[in-house]
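[Discussion] Sanity-checking designs against the backbone

I'm trying to build intuition for which residues belong where. Below is a structure token string of 412 positions. I'd appreciate it if someone posts a full sequence so I can compare it with mine line by line.
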């Protein structure tokens, strides 16, 4: 029996009764993912970069300020995934959403960049706590259509990724940073309310154990997952790709300003990237279930690397929008397949740990990209810096292409 809702493994969970109706937990998860990402992404790009510049942060530090939420994820996602396996998915999701509902209001207190850094570290706890639990629950309930379901859930999250920058830039252009922070906080509170009707977790499996025993079990489970070379290889590929994603999130807004693109248009550029991803992820996930994960990963990563090289060689709203749409298509090809491949590789009952390890390694790349890019941009400029980041992505792609031909990856 399933620990969360008492269902047989692989069957969809029973729909809870909400306000006299029947609402699927999968729909609730997708709505939570949308609202959570909408709140979160409002303050990631372009607002964080522009706000950091407004309060006097140097160029090299802006990458750190954007990446700091991701740095939190590096250290928190790994144990949070394992804790979800032990204590329940819903509990971990609620903890993360409490942070998501409160963190945006703290931005109102920021006047200097070191305080902004502290707030960003705290804000990073939100996704670090709930994201592995949400992905693990989807992967666990739908093993026969894992990539398709994860693609649909990813599309729901990416609806928030699409609208977040657009809404954030629009509110910023209309009424300033303070109102944008408040709007983000209100949306975060709505995400918390949505997750409340989900079926309650069973009593934690570890309540009868001491803290030391629980910790020892977590370490053993995580060590088993980290020790799987196939999981490490897939995570490395996703991490390297997200070094490019993080670079764009941190420095594309600043580059766009140098080529006379307005704040509102910057939001639309990021929105275009998200629309491409949202529209294509479910189809990419379904196709990967049929054809195989590996071709989609290789093709998508290659496309993203080429686009990353090209972006700083163009100027104007329409060229930047076009290249960002292509970048969104590339990530849509990759992420449903990498996440599903992780699900293919793990043992039953270890989905949370696996997604936590995957998320932590993914976040390492997501954080390192902007940090390296900031130094390179200050030293060499946008064109050379973006080309260097793309070169690292291509190197990782070659490693993945050669290493993923083993039997442990199966037919997919």
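Best answer:
Here's mine. Compare freely.
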């Amino acid at each position: 029996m399933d620990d969360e809702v008492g269902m047989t493994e692989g069957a969809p969970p029973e729909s809870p009764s909400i306000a006299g109706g029947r609402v699927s937990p999968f729909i609730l998860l997708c709505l939570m993912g949308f609202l959570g990402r909408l709140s979160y992404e409002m303050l990631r790009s372009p607002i964080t970069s522009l706000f950091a510049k407004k309060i006097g942060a140097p160029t090299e530090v802006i990458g750190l300020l954007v990446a700091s939420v991701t740095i939190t994820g590096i250290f928190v996602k790994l144990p949070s995934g394992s804790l979800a396996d032990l204590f329940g998915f819903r509990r971990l999701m609620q903890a993360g959403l409490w942070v998501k509902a409160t963190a945006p209001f703290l931005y109102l207190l920021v006047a200097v960049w070191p305080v902004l850094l502290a707030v960003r570290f705290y804000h990073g706890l939100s996704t670090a706590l709930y994201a592995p639990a949400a992905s693990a629950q989807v992967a666990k309930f739908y093993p026969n259509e894992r990539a398709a379901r994860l693609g649909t859930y990813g599309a729901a999250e990416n609806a928030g990724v699409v609208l977040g920058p657009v809404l954030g830039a629009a509110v910023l252009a209309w009424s300033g940073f303070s109102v944008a922070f408040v709007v983000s906080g209100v949306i975060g509170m709505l995400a918390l309310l949505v997750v409340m009707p989900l079926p309650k977790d069973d009593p934690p499996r570890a309540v009868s154990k001491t803290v030391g025993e629980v910790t020892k079990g977590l370490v053993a489970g995580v060590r088993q997952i980290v020790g799987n070379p196939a999981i490490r290889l897939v995570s490395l590929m996703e991490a390297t790709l997200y070094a490019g994603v993080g670079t764009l999130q941190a420095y594309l807004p600043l580059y766009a300003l140098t080529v006379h693109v307005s704040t509102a248009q910057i939001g639309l550029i990021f929105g275009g990237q998200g629309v491409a991803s949202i529209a294509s992820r479910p189809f990419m996930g379904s196709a990967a279930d049929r054809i195989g994960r590996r071709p989609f990963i290789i093709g998508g990563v290659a496309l993203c690397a080429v686009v990353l090289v090209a972006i700083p060689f163009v100027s104007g709203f329409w060229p930047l929008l076009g290249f960002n749409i292509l970048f969104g298509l590339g990530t849509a090809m990759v992420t449903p397949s990498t996440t599903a491949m992780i699900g293919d590789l793990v043992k039953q009952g270890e989905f949370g740990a696996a997604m936590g390890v995957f998320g932590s390694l993914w976040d390492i790349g997501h954080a390192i990209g902007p940090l390296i890019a900031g130094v390179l941009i200050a030293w060499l400029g946008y064109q050379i810096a973006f080309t260097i980041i793309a070169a690292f992505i291509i190197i990782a792609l070659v490693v993945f292409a050669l290493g993923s031909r083993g039997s442990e990856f199966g037919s997919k």
